[in-house]
Amino acid sequence: MLGPRFTDVRRFDELDSTNRYLVDEARTGVPEGLVAVADHQSAGRGRLGRRWEAPAGSSLLVSVLLRPDLLSGQRHLATAAVALAAADAATDAGIELWVKWPNDLVVADGRKVAGVLAEAELDGASGAPGVRPAVVVGIGINVNWPATDTDLPGDLVGAATSLRQQLGHPVDREALLSAFLAHLEPRVAGLSEPDGRLCLHAELRSRCITIGADVHVQLPGTAFEGTAVELTPEGHLVVNDHGRLRTVVAGDVVHLRPSSRFVPPGPGRPPPQE
Ligand code: BTN
Q: What Å distances lie between residue 34 and 230, 245, 252, CA to CA?
């Protein structure tokens, strides 16, 4: 069941980008809750200026317009709300997903099922009296593509998968969308409350497959390696770089060795540790 926020769901067979559409709508002062869904995007946006591509009708490509009462440094929590709602929708469909910091949803072996992209609207209506700045959060979920690894370009084999590939049967995108929006509703309400933000942080922490992993962190113009040890209350990643704790606000993270928290116990392997 949809909550009070996400009642205006605009559907498109084809759009350049659902994020672009909602950022433009945000500039006109549209209130929180507008949703855009596309069957296909001709210029889907990914992180760090990359493209997000998926065959028509195969994925859930959806963006939501939010106006949470957040400081700009807390915006990562809006991304987390969307990622966690999508993870719950996937659980409903029968598959467990984890958050790979900053904003990927992956299966336990690290293959990516979904990516989240948040874009702030800082011009236009945001800043007008009584209008909170907008943040548009979009997610692309590989639902029915790839069906098998043979559908993937070579560079994505072993790096990407889909709900269908994991479950062994097609997944209804409409049911997934409804579940996603229902799970998003209380989290968006929580974004604007201190207690809600604490809950989101705790939830993110428990779903974050990056904590405990050895990571390579790529920052603009520099890089370092260390062990991811914690998430700050704002959702930023704390990495132990040879004894020096460094907080990563934005960056690309590659897992070099998986977290022991998420390695399933097997013969000769110690049980997972907190
Ligand atoms: C990433 O992993 O790089 C983030 C990908 C985000 C893709 C989604 S699809 C729906 C929304 N519209 C866009 O143009 N991008 C996001």
A: 33, 39, 29
Retrieve residue 255's tokens.
């897992």
Q: Is 136 in the pocket of ligand 1 (CB under 6 A)?
A: no
Residue 273, pLDDT score: 44
Q: Prior bond to 146 cis, omega within 30? A: yes
Q: Which CATH number among 3.90.226.10, 2.30.30.100, 2.60.40.1120, 3.30.365.10 corresponds to the domain 214-257?
A: 2.30.30.100
Cβ of 3: how many Cβ atoms within 10 Å? 15
Confidence grade of residue 262 (pLDDT, cut at 50, 70, 90): low
- Alpha-carbon distance of 113 to 235, in angstroms, equals 21
The residue among 73 and 93 whose pLDDT is bigger is 93
Ligand 1 atom closest to residue 20's alpha carbon, by position in its atom list: 14
Helices within 6-75 (DSSP H only) = 18-27
